[in-house]
Amino acid sequence: GETAVLVRHALRNALIPVVTVLGLQVGALLGGAVIAETVFAWPGMGRLLITAINQRDYPLVQALVLVIAATISLINFLVDILYAWLNPRIGAA
């Protein structure tokens, strides 16, 4: 019916730019979390990162940067998979 047409054609095409923006915003979200946790003294990974930098705890800094980089890489990978599902022509390229 009409719902199937909307989901199959309109929604799939409309989601491509939304998925792009969401994938790009993950890095900004994690960067903003570091600032927000530091400013408001909230416990979290961002505040732990700043504390580790100030205390020169390099193994902890490396671990946290690795976790953040892995999270961003995983989200970008999921965005690429979602692209291929939303528009099969993108997945073939």
Briefly say what this structure is.
By secondary structure, this protein is mainly α. The protein is 89% helix and 0% strand. It has helices spanning 2-40, 45-54, 58-86, 88-92.
Low-confidence blocks of residues: none
SS strand fraction? under 5%
- Radius of gyration over C-alpha positions, nearest whole angstrom: 19 Å
Mean pLDDT: 89
Q: What structural class results from the helix and strand content?
A: mainly alpha
Largest sheet: none
> In whole angstroms, how far apart are the ends?
32 Å
Based on Cα principal axes, name the global outline.
elongated
Can you describe this structure?
This protein has four helices and no strands. It is mainly α and 93 residues long. The model has no long low-confidence stretch (mean pLDDT 89). The radius of gyration is 19 Å and the shape is elongated.
Give a quick set of tags describing it.
elongated; 93 residues; mainly alpha
Write the layout of secondary structure elements.
Layout (H helix, E strand, L loop, with lengths): L1 H39 L4 H10 L3 H29 L1 H5 L1
Helix pairs in contact: 1-2, 1-3, 2-3
